[in-house]
Protein: Golgi-specific brefeldin A-resistance guanine nucleotide exchange factor 1
Organism: Sparus aurata
Amino acid sequence: VLMTFYYILNTCFMPFLEVVRSEDTTGPITGLALTSVNKFLSYGLIDANHEAAAEAIENMADAVTHARFVGTDPASDEVVLMKILQVLRTLLLTPVGAHLTNESVCEIMQSCFRICFEMRLSELLRKSAEHTLVDMVQLLFSRLPQFKEEAKSYVGANMKKLKMRAGGMSESSKWKKQKRSPRPPRHMVRSPSGQMEPTQSSTLNNNSVSGGVLFIEQGLSTSILPASDSAGSSISSPTTTDSGLDTCSKATSREDLSDLEQCSSSATTPSTSEGRQVEPAQSASVESIPEVLDYKESVTESESTSVHDMDYVNPRGVRFTQSTQRDGASLTPYGLPCLRELYRFLISLTNPHDRHNTDTMMHMGLQLLTVALESGHIANYQSLLGLVKDELCRHLFQLLSLERMNLYASSIRVCFLLFESMRMHLKFQLEMYLKKLMDIITSENIKMPYEMKEMALEALVQLWRIPSFVTELYINYDCDFYCSNLFEDLTKLLSKNAFPVSGQLYTTHLLSLEALLTVIDSTEAHCQDKVVSSTAQQDQSETLLAEGEGSTKNGTNTLAGKHNQLSLYGHLSVRTFKTYCLDSVKKAPKKPQRFSSCLPDSQELMEIRTKKKLLITGTEQFNQKPKKGIQFLQDRGLLSNPMDNNQVAQWLRENPRLDKKMIGEYISDRKNMELLDSFVNTFAFQGLRIDEALRLYLEAFRLPGEAPVIQRLLETFTDNWHKVNGSPFMTNDAGFALAYAVIMLNTDQHNHNVRKQNIPMTVEQFKKNLKGVNGNKDFDQDMLEDIYTAIKSEEIVMPDEQTGLVKENYVWSVLLHRGATPEGFFLHLPPGSYDNELFTMTWGPTIAALSYVFDKSLDDNIIQKAITGFRKCAMIAAHYGFSDVFDNLIISLCKFTTLSSESVENLPTVFGSNSKAQTAAKTVFNLAHRHGNILREGWKNIMDSMLQLFRAELLPKAMVEVEDFVEPNGKISLQREETPSNRGESAVLSFVNWLTLSGAEQSGLRGPSTENQEAKQAAVLCIKHCDPEKLITESKFLQLESLQELMKALISVTPDEETYDEEDAAFCLEMLLRIVLENRDRVSCVWQTVRDHLYHLCVHTNESCFLVERAVVGLLRLAIRLLRREDISSQVLLSLRLLLMMKPHVLSRVSREVAYGLHELLKTNAANIHCTDDWYTLFSLLECIGAGVKPPASFQLTSTTTDNDTGAQSDSELSPHHPSEVNVDRGYTSDSEVYTEHSKTRIPRSQTDVDVASSGWLVVGKDDLESSKIPPVSSKAQLNHPLVNQYSLTLGQDLGQHDTKSLIKCVETLSFIVRDAAHVTPDNFELCVRAIRVFVEASLNGGYRNHDKKKSHKYDSSKYRLRKKAGGREKEGGGGMRRGGSRASSQRPSRSHSDDEEDEGVPASYHTVSLQLLDLMHTLHTRAASIYSSWAEEQRHLEASGRKIEADSQTLWTSCWCPLLQGIAWLCCDARRQVRMQALTYLQRALLVHDLQTLDATEWESCFNKVLFPLLTKLLDNISPADVGGMEETRMRACTLLSKVFLQHLSPLLSLPTFAALWLTILDFMDKYMHAGSSDLLLEAIPESLKNMLLVMDTAGIFHNADSRTGFSDLWEITWERIVCFLPHLREELFKQTVIPAPSPPVEPVQQTHPASRPPSPPHPASPPPVQLHSLGSDRSSPVPRSLSPMPVPLTASPAQGPSPLSQSPLILQPLASPLQVGVPPMSLPIILNPALIEATSPVPLLPSPRPTSPSDEVK
């Protein structure tokens, strides 16, 4: 096999190569040979694994690159060249190509370049060469990972060989001379300079080329310096001063393409006259960059090792190396060296300052660099990276300034690739690049093409899209003390640029927006991923927990927390992150010094940024006045105080913003000598030649001009340099002299002014000047020569001095120096690390830009893009909880909906026809639905929009319909219909309108146009999509804070005076209430807010209106729904007191709503009310609503006194629950409290005291009245504290007018409570009884009070159910007329209290009510005993509860039986006969019921005093004048009842000390009734009853007394004295046998029999009664209730009343204060209170004045 392979090679293959090499063959033959060679390759005949393959391949490469042939005509020659290209391409790209050596690869590339750049060849061929090159470069760089970096020494040697091989290339870009050509070819392809000169080839064997073959020796390498070296040396900046440039430009064709790059990138002298390349002095190239050597981890392959290893460099700097490839020696396959050389060559092609580089060449260079960067990962190879950092970036940035679009575009592309993959190593280059782009974008230069700006922006957008690029910008620049705020500045720039100045949108604006949105997009993607992964993690952790792995919840949360911080594309779990961190630690063991970790937290970043701001301010101050700047930084704590010289020196060195001139002045100041030492110590001068060290030193500040100052600076420098370099000179002074000489030389060589006058000194002169300076000896002459060369070729640039290229070079070299220090460290971050911070910085500009673009653009795609942007911003804001961002966004979007800006009339049309507004509206609502949780201020705008929609009637029906109690269907629309304008306008007005309008307008009036209708439909549809109702229903998922803000927004709409629209307020109120109901579960958190709002609406209003009605209904609706919730029910019930605080006339207007609402409330929730206070509230409400009772004073007072800014007092303030304070604070005493006080103390109770309590209303002592601070508002002010008279059947309430329907509803409610035994509790029993009595009074005589008052204020509620448009044209009068016909009034039964329909039904309804009440009283009366005993039973089990319930007769009498009997009795006085009769029947049943038998004497006595006597008194009035007969019958039945009761309970009554008085009163009534009637009915009935009584009493032996002289008791005497007055003959009829003794004087007997029982004005009930001769029960007989105590009632008649007609006989006992005789001394008889008379004398009328019969009439 071996033989055959050798055979193939030698016999078959070699001949073809010979043909190719031969210069005598013509083109076609060479072409055929090349084709055959190509077949060998493409058919795979050469076995790549064979040991001989390498040599064969090498031979082939050599032959083809040196192909020669005799030219015929250009076309066929080009065919051959084409074939050469083809073979070279196949050779390099087939597997065997791997055997090529570095030299061969360089030659192959070079051949292709030559074809490519030869302009005389056809374009097709050139393009083919270009494509071939692209493929080759791609292959070479994609193989990069297979190559290793060689040892430095090896690289040095190898590269030299390459260069010298390339020497073939490098020495010229010209054709080789044909040595033996028979004739010159017809066409010589010339190099750019057109000369043909022999090359000086010094390596591989047959290097000579013939036959016009293109041999592109355009220097793949220009200098023998390895590229790494030029990378190193490049740091000493290029010296293209004018002369330098000249030399370059004069350079002849010997120079290769990269010559200029040579001159500018290292200390090379351009080619000498003999055309020989002069190599740069080694030492200069390396050692001039000490800092780089210090810091760079092997970035430069420093030549210092390799140079001296194997090579000899001659004095001219030309290096000689021995060739390694002798015949038979092994061939090394190509590797990094050729790639590096190729890369360096490509970079040299891009140098715009090299005039040999045509545009085509630069473009080609950029194109191939692009391919190289795309194919290989160059950053891992220090030798290549060095080239990138310096030359490549430099050339690219220079190209950006050229206004040649194709080069500009290509260089931007290359920059993108560089910074995408290598920004870690190019920190300051990236900063410079971005600044350049910013300059281009903001450039005001008119000549600059628009496309350049566009491309610069596009470049930014591309960079922005690199994952985590912006984050790195922020961390590495904005958070670096000495870099510019790139991210912030760029964001501002982009934002500003997104705003079109002209108002027209161009691509640049959209690109800027695109860049801003890129940040938002990536942040949003990370947020989404975090959400996804955190939920996934939670699921995992839950399953783990479920499996019992016991991972604590805590653990998973912290995990998720970390995760949120750093999700890498969302999939970076914590584990991956740790490995990521470790990797980065391995790669970059250091982190930036300013950070405490690889990933500093936000707090740390904030501190750095604050510090940075201070540093910038300090720097600015330093640049004006150094001391001031230092002082400032010391004050801010950034520099230590007292001053630390080392610290300040370090700051002066590392802060690039400082003015170098100021640094020079500051450090050279005499006072700062120590600082100067520290400053010099910051340099690392070790191992540097003195001129290099000086160059470094003088770069750091501007050398001042004064000699002594310069001396001071240089002395310090030389001392330091001398010390660290081991004192190479004899003395320090020698060093000083040399340093001075170097500065002088620099000035001499490079200062224009000096050069004008003198010829620059030569190296000899320089040496001569320094003779004997080194301690009387000479310096090393070679060193001086080197110094001279270095200074001559490259100026020591003084900062801030030069301009143009020199300055550029200086700036660049400073940049490279900074990059080599730790400052150049670039922190690489996982994507999504600092999204939070970035978003905080970008959201403002982004939302502004989005809004602007959204506003200005008409293109749907752009609008859609803006909306997407808004959505993403919202999502991020929600994710991070940035409510300010979200509010801002919603507010911006609300503006675009046009909802708030358009007038209501035009809104449907405008909104419906504006698709952009609709899009905005949908977005607003969509965002509010999705991220409502973080909405705060924005709610206000959303609610304003809702209001506008409401006004424009665009909301769905469900939202404007609300619950209502009175409406039959339970709903009412908030949009009360307008009075239809066409019908409404009076005819005249319409006619006038018709006359004044033109035809077109007229048609408009007739109805909306079809477009308008369509628009309105579109609007309605859009709003339906928005689903505004969801905001309310979903509010239960909002965070509390957001919910509170939403409610605040709704409350705040409650209008200011100017824009007040009741309907709007009602709509907002309804939304508020719905939201509260949706949030029932946490209503306690928001209740106070809602309550205060309702308080404000109800209590402060002075007239009733739709809004108040809605507020009242709303409050009741809330109560109905919320009472089931234990936690809040008590608060809700307390809040119902709001209604009692309303001004009475306002409350009466909404009485029907309240009545119906309360009915609903009690029906659904009666079982949930457990507290007397709450029942008290409810019953008070029922009474106020149903019977027109004035609300209890305590509430009214509160509303006036506490009308402070906060609105209402909280309910709890209103009614403290401490029983001890109850009388003081609450202003009322609930019945049960009075009872419990007594039942606890169990004092022997006097009847009246308890009775006072049983009245159940307000018992007010004098102190209370006085302490109330409110001055009486009117003469009736005290009515707020009604003084209850127990001896009246009425409650003494001033009943205002009431609404019939409300009364009926309230009675229905009451009966619901009473009929269900479960609802009657100890807490509400007395209140219930009392309420019934109030309604009895209200319904008396068919509500007679109401009808008198009604007419005074007619109130038409339909009026406020109608909408009055602001600025409506209707006049009030017309409005009234119109309303009748409008639909609105039919929409709801009118609520006027004087409705005709109601008037017709009134008697009937009142009749029912009265009968219903009678039935209720009777029911309660009969069930009372059993109810109480069952309570008492329960109570035994609950002894501990502290409140005892007694079921004894006393309790029952006071709290239940007595009040109920009084109530029934009062209905017996009704003017309606039926009611009267029914009531009497009930009263009779009630009094004779079995349960009452248990009562004792005192209770029966009070039954007479409180029930029967007042009833009889009342019946004496002419109650029903029309019905005389009926009245007679009633009176007769009443009398009969009286005698029945008297006789039935005679025996207990006899035990009473006051029996005589009682009996006399009965006789009195008999007397009065005898004379009352006009018919005979009473005349017959009364004597019968009387006879009956007398006989029974006589039988009982009451009249007999054995001791008296007559055998009869005193009572007998008195009785007959009384009866004689009206029935003189009765005694004879009954007791014919008895003797009548002589009448005794009227007063005495009484006095003897009955001593005084009580002074007429009793003291406070608690004090013991004064002298009592007969033992009476303690307080109980006190006949005057304590409520009267402040007003003593004299027994002597007040003259005003005059003598009563009833007091003719001196013996008649007048109850209470009816005068017996004027001037007669007061009687000391027990006084029986006659209610009628109390009323007559009471200073406060207990019943309202307009009554059919006034009390005084009764008396008369």
Remarks:
- The longest helix spans residues 1396-1437.
